[in-house]
Amino acid sequence: MTEASTESHQSVAALDTSSIHRDAEERLVHRIEELVRKEQEHSFYIVDLQDVRNRAAFFKSLFPQITPFYALKCNSDLHVLRALAELGYVGFEVSSADELELARDVMLSSPMRSTELRDIVFSNPYKSSRALELVESGCAVRALVVDSADELRRVSGTIRRCRTEGARPEVHLRIASDETCVEFPMNSKFGARPDEVLPLLQLASELGTAITGVSFHVGSGASGSAAFTRSIHRATKVCELARQHGLTLIRTLNLGGGFPCIETSLLHAFARDIHDSLPNQLGVGVIAEPGRFIVESSHTLVVQVIGRRRAKSVQSAHGDGVMDDHWQYYMGDGMYGSFMDVALQKVVFAPCAVVKGGTVLHMRSFIARGGSFALYKSTLWGPTCDSIDCIGTFELPALSVGDWLVFERMGAYTRSLTTSFNSIRKPTVYYQ
Length: 432
Ligand SMILES: Cc1ncc(COP(=O)(O)O)c(C=O)c1O
Hints:
By secondary structure, the protein is of the alpha/beta class. It has helices at 12-15, 22-39, 49-62, 78-85, 97-109, 129-136, 149-161, 194-207, 226-244, 264-277, 292-295, 341-345, 363-368; strands at residues 2-3, 44-47, 66-71, 91-94, 120-122, 143-146, 170-174, 211-215, 252-254, 285-288, 299-314, 323-331, 347-348, 353-356, 359-362, 376-381, 390-396, 404-407, 428-431. Strand 6 (143-146), helix 7 (149-161) and strand 7 form a beta-alpha-beta unit. The two termini are 22 Å apart. The model is unreliable at 1-20 (pLDDT under 50).
């Protein structure tokens, strides 16, 4: 999956970047063929839990010095969470009271749970009263993140009222991150500006609640390591400021999420840049909150073509009034369902295969036949009655009602963003 404008006409050849290994791919193909017979018309996901484990292990091998806290907002599937908790080295990042309860329950039932319950960070700088009550009543989190004086006061009250002394969370300060190479910046909503940092550190000290961590989140769409390395530099300056003023000792640096799903060779360079920019002071632990990096490739979505319409359109590029064949297909899932990120983050979800007559035909096989197999400009629409419910325009083979489209890398910000608009049923979820 690549991020780009949905307006452009996407070539399937260019986007056909399957990372599924051959045997895993064969298993997946058999499963899809079995399930299209079973589901008849209803969209479904196939979730590869081993892929989730592999990606977490890959994160750990790229960044051995960083402890990952998986961001639940990305995809809070219970089996995914259990698979991660059972690894023993992945914590959870939560943003709401319900996510906190879910993370706590998964951790408590995991055989690998640490006895200290230091496995959850609450990174939303604004927490509901119910979330804070959960913490007060003993739902232990490692850290509560703040970025303003008001929230700092609320959180200090919570910590004072915590019933279990050993379960008292640390307080981490979220700072504004560097935004130079980021497509979807976050600083207008969250993050203390440089001039706000010292007053907040001083207030914390007056309240008797030391700030012991610094966090940031570069947002999605970081195109390289610069946003991270420059934000790490900012965070390091906060540690120095706190030390110089004798206010507090910063023990944790939290790099947030936004780790890109890019080619492995580029990832190694990315990891090296991060490693080189980390402070080498003893006693500063580094954590991060990857979401997309861990789950994106684990999900495959299979959606049926429920209608089609042939549209004659003018090829305006030539300006000669020539009409071309342009198909419009209506699918069982759309932008108000699994494809919300088309609208929110301009993500391009290109189908990687079609299922015709119960057989999976990978786009590669159409491309390989070259000119002998016609591809048509095809617009994919979702099932609701809204005209913005459009997935994009691609070059596809001719499709019939009842054929299916296969989308890979559908694990991040898909199921977690689904709405109930038009009462379209959510896809069934199968695991392997
Ligand atoms: C505070 C925070 N941490 C982590 C994440 C996860 O980001 P990603 O899935 O891009 O890694 C998010 C996503 O919005 C976030 O807001």
